[in-house]
Amino acid sequence: MSVKVHALTKTYGQQIAVDNISFEVNKGEIVGFLGPNGAGKSTTMKMITGYLEPTAGQAEVCGTSIFKDPVGIRRHIGYLPEHNPLYLDMYVKEFLEFSGKMYGMGKGLSARITQMIELTGLGIEQNKKIRQLSKGYRQRVGLAQAMLHDPEVLILDEPTTGLDPNQILEIRDLIKQVGQSKTVILSTHIMQEVQAMCQRIIIINKGQIVANDSTQNILERIQGTVGLKVQFKRPIDENKLNNVPGVQVSAVFENGKCVVQCDEGLHVREQIFNLAVAENNPILHMEPITESLESIFRQLTKTAAS
Fold first, then answer.
1. Segments of the chain with pLDDT less than 50
2. pTM listed for this prediction
3. Among the CATH numbers 1.20.120, 3.40.50, 3.40.1000, 3.30.70, which is that of 224-290?
4. Strand order in 153-157's β-sheet?
């Protein structure tokens, strides 16, 4: 088990930032750690990495307790915090060399820096001072630093912040590549990234975990057809549409288009088709309206907050 969290809690006076949470992440897993702002994501990540002391509970990284050896576990962790701290007056290669020496890297450091610069696409910027870089390239420097010492665990807090769409795709592919042999926990507000990269999703709200399952299971558990968009050749009688078995309610528009809410999902398609035949009113277009991961996220966090 690469990361194991048990009953982890963090309080600030009377405020509970993280409330007795437990989860495990295995090697080779990329886990999306999601939640609204202030939910406790960054606080949890800081406790796992040893940057913040828990109020109660336990966390282990590669079998080592964060209490027994908080400095030693950092050798196993590559951490990219939400606000990427960099020495702006250093050159890119200089900064990576400095970081490598801080990790105790000696022989092979130069070759590793070259490899990281290539992996993160920093080649054309490697001889610039960090303050001269765009926000996107500064983020790449942070990723290069996080992976420099070849850690078993990567903890990435908003890793694609400030990147343009092309850069996001490149970093996404990089994370998927390294995630095959490492443990990756990443926080993001971009749901497309979660679906593209993560095998599992943990959703936290108000300091408590409200979902912890594979991405596929979460989508299948809650996702389903909530309605249909249908366009008839001519306007359809709304009362007849509402009488179709499985249709809860419908809204009909003048151009023959309508939106149907249903309780039997795609199974109502056949009944609607039969209605079209009976009314001699052909269907020109039909498509399902389904839940997205974003709507599932809103549903889970709203329900837990109420």
1. 305-306
2. 0.76
3. 3.30.70
4. 77-80, 153-157, 183-187, 30-34, 200-205, 208-214
